[in-house]
């Protein structure tokens, strides 16, 4: 059973309150919560792109397989896209750790082993190694955080049916806690069930919590509102999210979509797109639009416009 402090830390992490956790003062090193609180703080730093700060924090942590896995994830995430050597080295470290936790002589408890699977599975998914990610996480797992990652993977490959099966399976053994509700909301966004009423209610409920400051949840509700054709309301959420976390890629992408659908005037929408494509050129949204533009240009190049017919003169 987690202490109330660690429970709160976990909830903040699951809801994307990464800045709050990054600024968190760690408990006493002799506390039972110290190691796991440190890991959530390190993961929050990684999520914010502050990988060097995460590595520095982890370097002073008690050695365990989960600390090693978090360090590998930080190195993978922090490496430049072109730095394939560093990225592959970090993935290999995570593969080795995934094998190591199956042995009897492991530096860590069952929670540490679960951390390794989640962190390794996350890295493999980001690397496009979907089968390896699912195998590492274990589609029959009874670790709810692993299920959350599995659901995200299934949604990302357009298999909401499999995501829903994971959710239904989890309800048989998992407590009805916040993470389970979050999983249900992710599936609701992917399927559009009941007009997105479940994710809309869930995100609104979380944002009413005075102890939570999460641009991630604001962005999630903004996306939900876009899907519900509530473009001005979405614009409001996304502007507030960007005020809290300037130039966040996901918030900017959603803001561009809302703007393009009428939330702002056309010149401002074009400026938003220019800013997004400049600051986040490797974002899937930007790359997808660029790819479609190339396909269009190739098609145009193959098309010959026939000459205009001259009007017959009397």
TrEMBL record:
Any one GO molecular-function label of the UniProt entry: structural molecule activity
A GO BP annotation: endoplasmic reticulum to Golgi vesicle-mediated transport
Gene3D superfamilies cross-referenced by the UniProt entry: Tetratricopeptide repeat domain
Family in the record: Belongs to the COPE family.
Keywords: Cytoplasm, Cytoplasmic vesicle, ER-Golgi transport, Golgi apparatus, Membrane, Protein transport, Transport
Record organism: Macrolepiota fuliginosa MF-IS2
Any one of the GO CC terms: Golgi membrane
Top-level taxon: Eukaryota
Residues spanning the signal sequence: none
Record's function text: The coatomer is a cytosolic protein complex that binds to dilysine motifs and reversibly associates with Golgi non-clathrin-coated vesicles, which further mediate biosynthetic protein transport from the ER, via the Golgi up to the trans Golgi network. The coatomer complex is required for budding from Golgi membranes, and is essential for the retrograde Golgi-to-ER transport of dilysine-tagged proteins.
Name of this protein: Coatomer subunit epsilon
InterPro entries referenced in this protein's UniProt entry, alphabetically: Coatomer_esu, TPR-like_helical_dom_sf
Membrane topology, from the record: Peripheral membrane protein
Pfam families xref list: Coatomer_E
Location of the protein in the cell: Cytoplasmic vesicle, COPI-coated vesicle membrane; Golgi apparatus membrane
């Amino acid at each position: 059973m987690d202490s109330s402090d660690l429970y709160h830390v976990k909830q903040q992490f699951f809801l994307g309150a990464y800045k709050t956790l990054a600024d968190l003062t760690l408990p006493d090193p002799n506390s039972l919560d110290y190691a796991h609180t440190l890991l959530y703080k390190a993961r929050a730093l990684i999520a914010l792109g502050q990988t060097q700060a995460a590595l520095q924090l982890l370097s002073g942590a008690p050695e365990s397989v989960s600390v090693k896995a978090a360090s590998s994830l930080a190195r993978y995430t922090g490496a430049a896209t072109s730095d394939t050597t560093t990225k592959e080295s970090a993935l290999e470290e995570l593969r080795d750790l995934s094998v190591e936790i199956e042995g009897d002589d492991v530096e860590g408890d069952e929670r540490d082993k679960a951390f390794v699977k989640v962190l390794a599975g996350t890295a493999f998914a980001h690397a496009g190694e979907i089968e390896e990610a699912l195998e590492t996480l274990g589609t029959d797992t009874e670790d709810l955080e692993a299920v959350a990652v599995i659901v995200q993977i299934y949604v990302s490959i357009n298999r909401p049916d499999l995501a829903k099966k994971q959710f239904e399976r989890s309800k048989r053994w998992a407590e009805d806690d916040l993470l389970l509700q979050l999983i249900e909301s992710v599936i609701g966004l992917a399927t559009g069930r009941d007009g997105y009423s479940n994710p809309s209610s869930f995100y609104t409920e979380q944002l009413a919590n005075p102890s939570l400051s999460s641009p991630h949840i604001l962005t999630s509700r903004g996306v939900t509102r876009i899907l519900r054709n509530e473009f001005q309301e979405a614009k409001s959420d996304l502007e507030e999210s960007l005020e809290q976390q300037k130039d966040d890629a996901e918030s900017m992408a959603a803001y561009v979509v809302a703007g393009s659908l009428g939330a702002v005037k056309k010149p401002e929408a074009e400026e938003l797109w220019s800013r997004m494509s400049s600051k986040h050129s490797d974002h899937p949204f930007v790359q997808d639009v660029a790819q479609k533009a190339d396909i269009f240009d190739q098609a145009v190049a193959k098309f010959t416009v026939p000459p205009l017919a001259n009007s017959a003169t009397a």
